[in-house]
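Message: A physicist's question: would you kindly supply an amino acid chain plus fold tokens?
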Amino acid sequence: MVEWKISPGLTDYEDALAAMEARVEAIHAGTASELVWLLEHPPVYTAGTSANPQDLTHPERFPVYEARRGGQYTYHGPGQRVVYVLLNVGKRGHDVRKFVQDLEAWVISTLAEFSLTGHIRDGRVGVWIERPDKPLMPDGSLAEDKIAAIGIRLRKWISFHGISINVEPDLEHFDGIVPCGISEHGVTSLVDLGLPVSMDDLDVALRTTFDQFFPPAD
């Protein structure tokens, strides 16, 4: 069975990295169960393995950490639900692409619990929300804002890192980076979109939709 853990308050980023790495080893050794860990961090910027240093526009604003996950720069902070997903991908088909697609589908299904339609776009990692209330893009397409970021790492076929979903973070904190290397689109949150969703509400929705994408491993 997958353990679900919710950490109250704010969890230090380095402490979370150390805890994840220890849990990955334990899952691989068969001494611990898989884990979905829900938490919030103090304000930090994190750099994935594809991060471009030029995308860190205000490095003095918050602590910056090398996350060693996939992806580019992202922000974590209060009001954002971080979902660390420590699952045995080896026992779930050894298919990393499908695993990431399942994470995306899980986020989209969770957002649908609040009657919100999330989208996946080629060349843009994460989950996006169309914004018909904003001016059209120069090419005439709808403006889109990012509501969730996805970045994972595998060790011995065990995943760690995972997802972040914006519930009610300070959106100005994203201004110190080019989020995920994409400058032509913005960032939004559930509350910014006018949805009175609490962190507890989101946690319930994540738990409700999880099993359809991640049934028990063989």
